[in-house]
Amino acid sequence: MLAWTIYITFIGVLVLMLLPRDNARAARIVALLTAIAGCVVAFVGAIQQSNPGEVTTIVKADWIPAIGANYYLAADGISLVLVVLTGLAAVSGILFSWNIEKRTKEFFAFYLALIGGVYGVFLSFDLLLLFVFYELTIIPKYFLIARWGSTRKEYGAMKLALYSFVGSHLVLIGLIAAWVVAKGQLGHASLDLIELSKVHFSAGFQHWVFPLVFIGFAILAGMWPFHTWAPTGHVAAPTAGSMLLAGVVMKLGAYGCLRVAMVMFPEGTREWQWAIAALAVAGIVYGAGVALVQRDFKFVIGYSSVSHMGFVLLGLATLNTVGLDGAVLQMFSHGIIAGLLFGVVGRMVYDRTHTRDFNDLETMQLGKLIPFAGVTFVIAGVASMGLPGFSGFVAEFQVLMGAWAVFPKLTILSGAGILIGVAYTLRAVQKGFYSDAPPRPVDHDHPFEPITIAERFGAVMLIGASLVIGIFPGLLMNWIEPCFKSPLFARLLSGGAQ
Amino acid sequence: MSYLQLLQLIAPETIVTVTMLVVLGADLTVLRGKSLAARFNGGALISILGCVSAALLAFTRLTNANLFKGLLVISPSSDFVKVAILALTVFTILISTSARFTDHVGEYLSLILLGTIGLMFLVSTEDLLMIFVSLEFASFSLYILTAFNKHNGKSAEAALKYFLFGGMSAAFMLFGFSLLYGIAGSTNLRDIAVAIAGKGFDPLLLIALVTTVIGFGFKIAAVPFHLWAPDAYEGAPTPSAAFIGSGSKVASFYVLAKIFTLGFVGAEGSAAYHNFLSGWTPVIAIVAALSMVLGNLTAIVQTSVKRLLAYSAIAHAGYMLLGVLTNTPSSASAMMFYVITYALTTIGAFGVVMVVEDATGGDAIVNFNGLSKRAPGLALCLMVFLLSLGGIPPLAGFIGKFFLFSAVVSAGANLGLLWLVILAIAMSAVSFYYYLRVLKAAYVEDAAADAPPIKVPLLTFLALALLALLVILLGCAPGLLTQFL
Q1: Whole-number Å distance between alpha carbons of A458 and A456
Q2: Nearest CB neighbour to A142, from listed B415, B429, B436
Q3: Residues of chain B found within 8 Å of residue A139, distances taken between Cβ atoms
């Protein structure tokens, strides 16, 4: 069932390609229907899965027997969470880009191709298949930004593409090396993630392969100091592009770290645990600090993404169930909240004011002119700060709890990151929407276009998702928790015992 | 051995030869006075019929034969390479049907066929003499094909350069071969292997080795013997460049691997990290590493897409050489997969360049601006070809790289050859940048406002679409090809 999320999305791409060139309306509707269908399938499929703790096979067929590659789609609770996130992000992204007029059909074709690749990554349990889907997302990202983006779009797009490509090539080196070693041990070629997770790679091998693969993926997760693609990419991207980048693409990286690097090389993970945690906290504090001094509204959100993804990486580095649970939940939570923030800034504000400079926005009194945007941003902002009742709180709280047990000093440092997070969010709310600065005479002949129904729907959907998970975290925790008790993660969590 | 049997064994080559004569004759008689398009289409039809029937014959017969002490060796594997070469010839001819640079249609097509015959003989021999003769036979056709655009001075310059470098390389190769003959007393590769086995570090052998590498280095355009390639690719009529970059590459790599793996057994040495041993693998490893680095880095600054493709060809030759130097059955088949898919992709890329060049008058990257609007189908094909060259899954170029690199790493004990693969993968990350530059022009930049849609000749477009489909198909289901290699 879940495999249809991938197929439906790619069928949507084909249908879009066949549409006549200038029918923007049809393109939007096709894209929206495809995304909704994918989202519904994701929800239904996820709910139907009876035992989220186990890896449940969806499809398994021979693909390239010579190298042991299978067409192997499967899902456990972690995949389910992220597939559902992808579904939500896909729909809301389309709602927030309803006003794309320039080459609409191509825009949505690239958009859906990206979504299809993301679904594929989250559902692949074959290493090669996962890698194929992972790289498949690079090209649409590039074109979405370079073609439909704004500020320094070509630079941002190329930077993102090259960072992604370099990262995936680091992964490829590790993957090939691991494949060769595993072949020697198993006696046959295999790319099955579950089978590979049982292979015992020597400590010396894990010592250098783990950082290679982990960093390869973590580049896309925005790990400091490899995060620099993220702010520029987010700022350059069109609204839906930044929503997807922050919402799901950064999760691809974190997911790869967990699913591939950590599961396959548990000893390497333990060896480098401290380094990961340190870099994660550096990202949390640095991202927040830089966000505090930005003049461009979107850069604030861009750097805040780096900061919040730091929590994901910190959670991964804890190597205890509480922290890992928190990390996965934070992936979901950040996907929703960052999507919403980018939606407000990119679509509701920038598309109307054509500026993201706080100095200009301060004089506009946006809180009065487009109150819906102001309210939405405040809600998203407090969710992002980690106010109890929203998903961000549950997730970051768990990460910190998990981290406290392992690295108390670093945890305190990351607390500073949270405080700065409150500061930059309040600053953004104040400067962006509710400033005291003397208002510029408003051009009454050209008032801002009112907030459209599509935007309202998208915003309500995302706020709702964050609230629901904030109040009933069990909904997702029931999927996530059993995973880390499964044999797949046993070696990682057993603390060195082999 | 009667002549009849001989004729039977070389039936595919014979068919192509006859086809070549028929094409030449038809263009002189039946097609004379017809329009250029009609002559091209008619000639192409005959050539393709001939090539397809030769390919079918080679594909269906399962013959193993070894005539005249290795002068003519026929095996299912060499037959399959012939099929691949014929397929590449067919695609080259298909994209050349819309060419308008010459009115010597019969001569042009028959030269392509002649080159093909040379390449077909090249892959079915284990004898140095025959290798040399058929290689030169094919090369001479390629020299003329390069010079075929009489209205363009660059074409003549390119051909002269190609010819002079080629002649020099032939001299080197022949010198190496003569030393080998001196050592072994035979031109047969297997005899040579027996004679040099256990010789160890022998200066004479080393010279023979190096000069042979130099000779072939020129043919496959590996650094530092690559200097002719960018000029030849740029100046040659585009279909000729496509043929140089595809069919001749497949055959050259097949025979290169044969020479080293059959003829130099026992003189491998080792190219493993921290464990160099003198022999032919370190020599090839150095040439491969240089080609990957220089080819990719130089391609970045190119503005002409043909030159860019030439440098990318140099880089790809570097990757392919990795398959030669590892010298295991799995790496040999991985290399052939890589070379064949690379050749298909290259013809496609050159085909797109040709159409764009005809429509806009140049092959600079700016000429591709707005291609996605002016010719959406063509732009899509270009995207498939370039992304495959860049190694993006699920296209054939990616899976080829995966096969090749994993075979190379498996071949060295203790991951000793991983350094070469790391270099290759790093360089392939670099290559992504320049392929993306071309695609950026096609998909992101806008053409001038009054730029009309580009009319793509139907036959060429069909060929390109078929190639793009093949590239996607072989990427998703590589088993279709690997089962024969």
Answers
A1: 5
A2: B436
A3: 387, 392
For chain A, how far is it from start to end, CA to CA, in angstroms? Answer: 36
Contacts of B294 (CB under 8 A, 6+ apart): B223, B226, B314
> B74-86: b or e for each residue (b if 16 or more CB lie within 10 Å)?
beebbbbbbbbbb
Q: How far is CA B120 from CA B1, B17, B176, B241, in A?
A: 21, 11, 23, 19
Per residue in A14-60, pLDDT (tens digit) is 998 888 877 888 888 999 999 999 999 999 988 888 888 888 888 88
Cross-chain Cβ contact B421/A176 below 8 Å? yes
- Which spans in A49-186 are helix H? 77-95, 104-123, 127-136, 138-148, 153-186
User: Given the structure tokens 């860049």, which residue do they identify?
Assistant: B390
Both tokens of A46, joined, read: 């996820």
* Contact between B187 and B181 (Cβ < 8 Å): yes
Residue A238 is given by DSSP the state -
Q: What ipTM does this complex have?
A: 0.89
Mean pLDDT of chain A: 88
Q: Tokens standing for B452?
A: 């009309």
Residues of A in contact with B440 (CB under 8 A): 146, 154, 158
Residues A388-435: pLDDT tens digits?
888 888 898 899 999 998 888 889 988 888 899 899 998 888 888 887
Query: Who among A66, A169, A180 is closest to B428 (CB)?
Result: A169
Which chain B residues contact residue A106 at CB under 8 A? 372
Q: Where are the domains of chain B?
A: 268-485
Q: What tokens appear for B77 in the block?
A: 């594997």
User: B392 vs chain A: nearest CA distance in angstroms?
Assistant: 7
- A144 CB neighbours in chain B (<8 A) are none
Half-sphere exposure of B79 (CA within 13 A, CB side): 20
Closest Cα in chain B to A177: B409
* Total residue count of chain A as it appears in this document: 498
Token duo for residue A76: 């456990």
Enumerate chain A positions whose Cβ falls within 8 A of a Cβ in B. 64-67, 106, 128, 131-132, 135-136, 138-139, 142-143, 146-147, 154, 158, 161-162, 165-166, 169, 172-173, 176-177, 179-181, 183
**Beta-carbon contacts of residue A200 (< 8 Å; ≥ 6 apart):** A185, A498
Strands B270-272 and B275-277: antiparallel
* Integer angstrom CA distances of residue B383 from B377, B392, B470: 10, 11, 14
Query: For residue range B260-304, what is the model confidence (pLDDT) as tens digits?
Result: 888 887 777 777 776 777 778 888 888 999 999 999 999 999 999
Please give the backbone phi and psi of residue B346, each rounded to the nearest 5 degrees, phi first.
-65, -45
